[in-house]
Every structure is written in structure tokens, then in C-alpha cells.
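Feature request, filed as a ticket because there's no other form

It would be nice if the structure record came with a short human-readable summary line next to the C-alpha cells. Right now we just get the raw output. Example of a typical job, pasted below so the devs can see what we mean:
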Amino acid sequence: MASTKDWFETVAEAQHRARKRLPRSVYLALVAGTEKGLTSRDNEAAFDEIGFRPHVADLPEKRELATTVMGQDVSFPVLISPTGVQAVHPDGEVAVARAAAAADTAMGLSSFASKPIEEVTAAHSKVFFQIYWSGDRDRILARAERARAAGARGLIVTLDWSFASRRDWGAPPIPEKIDVRNALKFAPEVLRKPAWLATFLRAGSIPDLTVPNMALPGEEAPGFFGAYYEWMQTPLARWEDIAWLREQWGGPFMVKGISRPDDARRAVDAGVSAISVSTHGGNNLDGTPGAIRSLPAVVDAVGTQIEVLLDGGIRRGSDVVKAMALGARAVLIGRAYLWGMAANGERGVQNVLSILRSGMDEALLGLGRSSVHELRREDVLVPPGFTRDWA
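Raw output as currently delivered:
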């Protein structure tokens, strides 16, 4: 269907609408990448180097997109990646959960989310809770148990973060809280985006920089910087810590942030259910190859021992198909759905998911595959040197 005021045809158009609607600081926070942004750009650009090998006859009349990820049946292999401190829409992660439920796919919820997990799981049953290695073991386990009690179906532990916040091109600072001083500071750019401001005013709220999922029972929700400080002061996780938490959790368990085959094998040894090949959206160590470049070597390293997902750079349904042809079981999307929510709230997220679903179906048709489970490396053309010689 053609684009309308309330519908867009591509993720690129969702990004364009998000940029027009959001205050400059909010938009720049969505697209930020560490330092020069090499990894952030390569996450997306690397997909353009992969070609298809299509068929032209005897094509399947119907294509099956459904699969299972960490024990959850999903109607297609595109999951919501956990993203923190959402300021693009007042409904935040609850709206995302409703959109994911409508699309019958699973959602990752960040421990730095703006909405408490209890509200999110009330909107959707297929939620995986994401945590960082922050605080001592008792606090980490208590957060996981809170998620379990709320109905989380699995745990995601994110390990790829080096606490670098430098941005060569000047991404905006995040205020510690929205008080009178900061309201006045950001007022000029906010007033230039009346539609975004009106959305929050109608909801009777302002962007909330507290992170309720980092609080334990009886505690007040900390602000973003308070939670971030605890995380920075925590001794870095070791593989034995991951194995301990996996055992304590006892259910589906993913490690997010893998880019090396040897780390993938260590994750297998730790007993995890799944890994996500990810660069934290280009917000970890700049110069790391785009996630799709690391995927084939990771898949070769672990085989079918665990599920391998990819997170980073997905903008089209054909990108999902490329990732699956190279061995991913499914993908996670972050910026794409945030742009959709900025453009049109919950319906905008549904819009993005619909675009990716349609693009997947079209790519499967062209490749002559009747199911995502039939995709193979022979379906794509990968140029020499694409994987940057991972060993």
C-alpha cells in the first residue's frame, strides 16, 4: 500500500518521520554510535555487500515464516531488542509490547527500560528480561527473580559494553533528570517539535529518566545515572558468573554481545540456551566489524549446540533473510522499531514489523524457499573478505 499520513512503506521512511518529529537531542540519542561511528555504520552497510541467488520458476505459492526462539513460538523470526530509557513516546515499552503481541513475536525488555516489567508482561506474555552484570550476585539474582515473578519467559544478559561515551560528532548529553533547569535548557528544541510535546502533554507526563526495573522490592526506582554508576562500579562478569546465573535462572538464557567464535564456544560451555551476535548497536568498541560479518564464523563455531541470533543493522525483510541464510535462527531489531514508535506510536511499531514480514516473504519467494528453515548459505553471495578473517 502507498504511504499515507498514518502509514509508511519502509523503515527508511520511519526514520525520516522520526527525525522530523523528535527533538534533536532525542533523535541523536537514537542514532548515536561510539566515537567515530565506524561499527554503527558498518552494522547496516555490511548487508549491502551480500547478494541473492534467486530462482525464476517453480516458486512456492506459500511461504512459512514461523519459528521458535528460546522456547517461544513466534509468527516470524524478528524479535524486539531490549533498548533503555525510551523518550520517543509516553507509552514506551508497553506500546511496544502490545505491538509485538499483535505481530505474535517476542520482546526483550531492558533493565534500563522506562516502564516496569510488571506493566509490560501484562501487555504481552512473550517477554525476555534483559539485565547487565550490575551489583553483587544477590542484587542481580533478585532482579532476575522479580522478572520471573512478573512472567518473563527467559533471561538475556548483555555483556558487550566498555563504558565509552565519546561521540566524535557530538551526540547530546543525557540530563540526570527533567527538572526546571533542564526543561529550560532543552525548551528551544522541544518547542520546535510541537507534535512530540503534545503527545506527552496529552498523556499527562514528561520523559521519565528513572529506571524502575533496576529497583528491588521496597526501593525507589533509581535515575539512569544512579543505575549506570552501580553498573560501572561492579566488577566485570566472568564466565563462571554467567554459568552461575544461568544455573540459578534455570530456564531459557541468552548472552547478548558475542562477536568472536571463542566467546561463542565459552557461552556454550557456560550452558546458555542462545547467543546474540551483536555490537550493542555500534555502542561498544568502535572498529568492531558489523554484526553480520561476525555471524558466519560464530555459527560455524557452535553449530546446532545453541540458538544463534543476530542483532544489528536490520532495516529490511531481505536483511533478515540474509542473516538467516548465514545461520541465524532469528534477528532482533532496535532502532527500526524505535523510529516506528516515534513516527506513529504503537501502530508505527506494528508498521515496521509488517514491513519486515512482507520483505521476508518477498525474499523467500524470489529464492524459491517455502520456509525460513530451508534457507542456506547457497542462497546468498558473500564477497571475499566479508567476514574480516575471523578465526
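Something like this underneath would help us a lot:
The longest helix spans residues 335-367.
The two ends are 45 Å apart (CA to CA).
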